[in-house]
Every structure is written in C-alpha cells, then in structure tokens.
Amino acid sequence: MPEAYTQNAQQPTQQPTQQPQPATAPPLQILHINLNKSKTAHNKLINNVQSKKWDIVLIQEPYIVNHFGAIPTVTNYRPVYPEDRERNGTTVRSIIWVSNLLGTKNWENINIPNTNDITAIQLRGDFGKLTIFNIYNDCTHSNTETTLRTFLQTQARRIISGNNVSMTWAGDFNRHHPLWDRDEDTCLFTRQSQRAAEKLIELLAKYDMVMALPKGVPTLHHMSSKRYSRPDNIFCTPNLQESMTRCEVDASSCPTCTDHFPIVMHLTTPQPRAPISPNYNFRDVDWEIFRKTLKTHLDEIPPPQLQSQQQNNLTKQVKTSPAPFKTRSQAA
User: Fold this and answer.
1) CA distance 155 to 265
2) pLDDT in tens, 242-299
3) 202 pLDDT exceeds 50?
4) What are the residue ranges spanned by the domains of the chain?
C-alpha cells in the first residue's frame, strides 16, 4: 500500500468547520375574527388559540358575560381593551389578545379616546414601528371612521412619523364596494352603500393604505340568506405588504355561531419571543413512586436548627421529587 494512502487512512483530513447559520425569526402570526357576540364562538376561539399559538388575536364583537362588561380571555394572553370601556355605556366591540411570549418591552397599548370600537397596539424593534388597529365599523353610521381620522391627525408623530414605520387596519368595516366585493354582488352596490364606502376609501387614500386581502374573497356567509359578502378587510401601508407572507381567509376553521370567516396573517417582522419554561405534567406521575422518593429524600434532611430552615428543606425536596417524571412539553 502506498505510504501516502496509509497516512491519509490513519489521519483523515479535517472537514472545514461550518459556520452556524443565524436563526430565522418565526413569522408574526395574527388571527382576525368577528365572533358575532356568540358565547359558543368565543369559547371555540379560546380552544383554537390555545392549540395554534397565535401571537396576536384581533377580535370584533366578542362575547360579553354580564352587564359588568366581563369578557373571557384565553390563558397566557394579555387582553387589550378600549380606553373608554365601561365609561360611556356603549358595548365593547373591539379587543386584542397578545401572547405572553411577546415581551411587553417590545409593544405597547395605544389608547384611542371616545370609542369602544377601536383598539390598537404598537410593536417596536430593529425593524422600526408597526401599529396594528383593530376596528369595528358600525353599518349605520361613520363614527368609527371619524374617530380614527381624528386620532391619526392628532397622533401623527407617534404613529406615522419617522423612518421604517408601518401600519395596518384590520376589522369589520361593514362597507361594500366593487374594489373589494365580488363583481357579481351588484345587489350590495346601492347608492347609500357607495356613499358610505367612499368615506372609507378617502381615508385609505389619505394614508396611502393598500388592500392586503385579495379582491373578491368573501369574509362572511350570511346565516339567513346564505349569501357571501365582504364586510371584513385588511388594509396596510405598502412597506408592510412587502413583509406579509400570508393574508387569506381560513373558512375551514370558522367557529360555530358566527358567520364571519377567520382571516390569517403572517408577517416577517422580527419580534423576539420569551423562552418557554416547561412545567411538570403531574397527571402522568406514578404517585406511589413519588411518595416513596419523597420519603427517602425527607429522611436525608438533618434536624433543623430553625423553623425557616426546615421549611426551606421541605420545599426543596418536594420540588426535586418529581424530577424523574416527564415534563409537560416533553410528554407532548
């Protein structure tokens, strides 16, 4: 065997070390839904949110438990309510749920006065600022549009001034127009509906907003008439549309007792998440083994000199006893 081949066989050449690739930030996942004030739809949404792990949930017409204005909120989410909640006697028709995984130092609640129909949050980071408005627009008047216009005029520096700022308006706008409805739904294009829609279109044009959800995609299947229409919509600034990898209706996951379809949005906007700390799944514990293990650990504790020391030792052994068992995240 040639000497060079022997040396290579005994001392294999090292492969070049690959540089670790930077982790890609997961997309910002946003769910939009009108719950039609239904308890059944609201509870179904809570189960859906717990299983899908949305970052932000935009809700119009939530279920309200009683006259005190209590609104059920999913575990591990922070609710954002209108500033005028329980003040002016009107019903809350817009709320936002923000996942606890999004650290509070990276977003803030934007209070909008004189309305229970708009909620908003602002995300901040290296990408700049992103303001998300969740809007319920009543079909009988344009008060919400007026409130939004006034707020943007008075808070322009906070919302739209500076570099790398973006904005989205998501909600139930209750307006019909050929720009977003299906062309064949001519029965919706009455003179009155066109006049109402023109006010919204003027506001969109003033702030250079574009429609993110494609034209002609229905967002509602009326329970009585069984007709499809497009009262819900997603508008955003052009620079945000470039970061939007998904904006579509998910009719298959529509909760019962609401005729509005959920709308799913994914944004590449980088947003840091808090680490998830696994917890113990005590449902899977063999309690006979647990008690024996705990007794063994307790017998090893020396006699305490102080009561506080005894309490600390007891707490320590109780916490360490379940260690042989799977955590909830591992068990899954």
Assistant:
1) 26
2) 999 999 999 888 988 999 999 999 999 888 887 766 666 777 888 888 888 888 888 8
3) yes
4) 28-267, 282-331
Tokens 């998830």 appear where?
A: 276
Residue 221: strand, helix, or coil:
strand
Top-tier CATH class for 28-267 = alpha beta
CA 24 to chain centre: 19
- At 233, which amino acid appears? N
Cβ 254 vs Cβ 260: under 8 Å:
yes
Under DSSP, is residue 276 helix (H, G, I), strand (E, B) or coil?
Answer: coil
Give the number of residues written for the chain.
332
The amino acid occupying position 307 is Q
| Inter-axis angle of helices 287-299 and 307-320, nearest 10 | 140
| Contact partners, residue 26, CB within 8 Å, separation at least 6 | 273
Output the CA torsion 276→280→282→283 (10° steps). 40
What is the distance between the alpha carbons of residues 52 and 64, in angstroms, rounded to a whole number?
Answer: 23
| Six-digit token string for 118 | 């708009």
| Strand bridging mode 210-211 / 220-221 | unpaired
Mean pLDDT of the chain, nearest integer: 85
Task: Please list the residues that pair with 77 across neighbouring strands.
Answer: 99
Tokens for 14, please give them: 């090292």
